[in-house]
Design brief:
The protein is mainly alpha-helical. The chain has one domain (2-261). Helices cover 78% and strands 2% of the residues. It is built from ten helices and two strands; from the N terminus they run ααααααααββαα. Strands 1-2 form a two-stranded antiparallel sheet. Helix 1 (2-21) runs parallel beside helix 9. The chain is globular and about 50 Å long. 50% of the residues are buried.
Length: 262
């Protein structure tokens, strides 16, 4: 029960932050699940793989909820989503395979460095200058593949990568956020399937699980994050977003540093 309460709390925090700041919850979900699993009799070598795979599985559900909300407002640029999706799917699938083969400590270091990078970007408010249009199909495929690969390696829906890429291509921020949310679904689906496939026969996984997806964590985090995301969206209209982003940046910096030093 204590474990389930922790996962519900993590989901509530991740959902609120996602709705409030437009930042995916994976950066909160992954280290939280990893910390809980580290206290259980779960082999150290697979803690990060389970945390990454389970995080991506929860994003499947939250992405669907987010897509419905953005689509209802007509903000999703579906032609752009379809152009990015093939590369995203291939990249996320490969990312899951690579994560399966990497040492857990290497994955932890990669996640820590990524969290520190996102923290720096949020703290300084850096954004790429928009100066061009979406590139051709080949370059867009490479971009999608890169986004999918990195997202699977760190267990996120890709918003911290997709939004800057789209704004760099002169996509308005409102459309960039909505389109990024839509791109999060193929990232999460491909990554989840990859972690299920690669973890299916691995011994020592906590039960009940499907591949690298730990079902109690998936259920608790997913339910709470879906319920609390609309609450975060409402708060976004009343709270100072710029200050909150800096607070979240500090939190990510602490998380990143802890992942690197633990």
């Amino acid at each position: 029960m204590i474990e389930l309460f922790i996962y519900l709390l993590v989901g509530a925090l991740a959902g609120t932050l996602a709705g409030l700041l437009g930042v995916g919850g994976g950066l909160i979900i992954v280290p939280a699940i990893a910390a809980v699993l580290a206290q259980q009799a779960v082999p150290h070598a697979m803690v990060m793989q389970i945390a990454l795979g389970t995080s991506l599985a929860t994003i499947v559900l939250t992405a669907i909820s987010s897509i419905r909300a953005h689509h209802a407002r007509g903000a999703v640029l579906w032609p752009t989503v379809w152009r990015l999706t093939p590369g995203i799917v291939i990249g996320a699938w490969i990312g899951a395979w690579v994560a399966h083969g990497l040492d857990g400590d290497v994955l932890r270091i990669i996640f820590g460095l990524f969290a520190l990078g996102v923290a720096l970007q949020l703290a300084v408010g850096a954004a790429p200058a928009a100066h061009r249009q979406l590139p051709g199909n080949a370059a867009t495929g490479v971009a999608g593949g890169t986004i999918g690969f990195i997202s699977a390696i760190v267990g996120i829906g890709g918003g911290t990568l997709t939004v800057p890429f789209l704004t760099w291509c002169n996509v308005p921020m409102r459309n960039a956020v909505a389109t990024s949310a839509a791109c999060g679904l193929p990232i999460a689906l491909a990554g989840t399937l990859g972690f299920i496939w690669n973890g299916w026969t691995v011994a020592g996984r906590p039960e009940p699980s499907v591949g690298y997806i730990y079902l109690p964590a998936f259920a608790g985090v997913a339910v709470a994050s879906i319920l609390f995301a609309p609450y975060g969206a409402r708060l976004a209209h009343t709270l100072p977003a710029a200050r909150l982003k800096r607070i979240f940046a500090l939190l990510l910096a602490v998380i990143g540093a802890r992942m690197l030093l633990s």
